[in-house]
Design goal:
alpha/beta, five-stranded mixed beta sheet, single chain, 16% strand, D-Maltodextrin-Binding Protein, domain 2
Length: 348
Amino acid sequence: MSRLLRSVAAALALAAVAAACLAQGSAGTADRGASPPVKSIRFGVLPLGGAVESRALWTPLLADMSQAMGLPVSAYSVASYEELDRAIQRDEIDMAFLSAKMALDAVMQRRMKVVAQIARRPGMPTHRAVLLTRKAGLPSTLEAVLAEPERWRLARGDSRSVTGFLIPQSQLFLPRKIAMETRFRGEIVGTHQATALAVANGDADVATNNTTDFERFREQFPVEAARLHIVWESEPPPGAQMVVRRSYPSEFQARLQAFLVGYGQGKGPRADAEREVLKTLRAAYGYATADDSALLPEAMLEYQLGKQNAMAAAWVNDAAREKRLQRLEKNYREQVEALRPAASAATR
């Protein structure tokens, strides 16, 4: 209840700051005869559980961002990856924390650029994709899932989800000639919370998830989580990225990046409160500076997955398969070319 009250209070504070900033902006326009280049920030919230829950998690940080930047910051919260993707394409999002897949798409469309990612330190738990089943009943082991996928109902993430789809498909299923979209008896597509609940409540038999979101699930749904266990863990996947609108002035982008990197890094009561916010966002050590080159691992993952799909698919002839592989190679080279300048600049 206390967390809910803090979120409500933060939301009210955010609205108050937004109103004050708009009033100040109007006065400033009269004095200077021109509007500021950036009037507000619309922050896209990646769905974790429900849209309301996801918005509540981000509200305290966005309130602090609004105060630091002197601009209204609003949360654009949606129920699915697809909705958020469409909002980005309609230019309704100015900033967002995105899965590596969605971030790569937005960067390659020249709409966004990477400015930060979750900071990692030696010894901290590694974020991984996982596969969940119920402890009681079947299938209770990975071997049972892989032996007869046609027997089981799958709950998985959206195709834009790295840990909910891309990594399990690439590292676990396709190497065994199992296509997640077609080999299972049925499927449910949803958030990590939704997939875990589906298995816990008997609506599905196996679910994709990840270690970070399953930890959150254990806290929120302890009874349901006790029915589940992890039967497979992946290698560490490409990480999610904080992106901002590429058309923002470079100095404004730098200010946003400085806010994120400095958030929760100071001393005193304010910094302590910021660190509590970061913990709820599963970013205990805050955010680290990043650029578009952070998406090179995701580009490689998608290239490898594309090749796996091409090799597993049925083709009219070998020439058709080879043409598909050549297109994949060309697309990957273009992505690397677009992302590498950021890597070169970072080393200078």
